[in-house]
Amino acid sequence: MTVNPRLYGQYRQGDVFLREVDAIPASAKRVYGQPVVLAEGEAAGHFHRILEREGVYMSESEEGEIARRWLSVDRASVDLVHPEHGTIRIPLGNYEVIRQREYQPEGAREVVD
Length: 113
Known about the structure:
Blueprint: E1 2-3, E2 10-13, E3 16-21, E4 29-31, E5 36-40, E6 47-50, E7 56-63, E8 66-82, E9 85-99, E10 101-104, E11 107-110
Parallel strand pairs: 1-9
Antiparallel strand pairs: 2-3, 3-9, 4-7, 5-6, 6-8, 7-8, 8-9, 10-11
């Protein structure tokens, strides 16, 4: 079943959050590799990935010690899949890929999916 939880250019699948942006920063460098993997789940080792191989690209940039990831969809839409979550249809556009974080008394950490 394919769902489309779009709310003002925002998408969430487990611990992965996509936020639509006007453009990918010029400092970002394209990451080559297929399929496009947005994140690897730490609990079960499953991947949040896009199966389509044409018209979809990942980029990365570093700002100080913080690495940021970007997704560019240059086709009508692509499917973001994960075996434990519903498939999400992501339309044409540029997105910042954000791993959700949670606060613990020891400090912030990535959400375990």
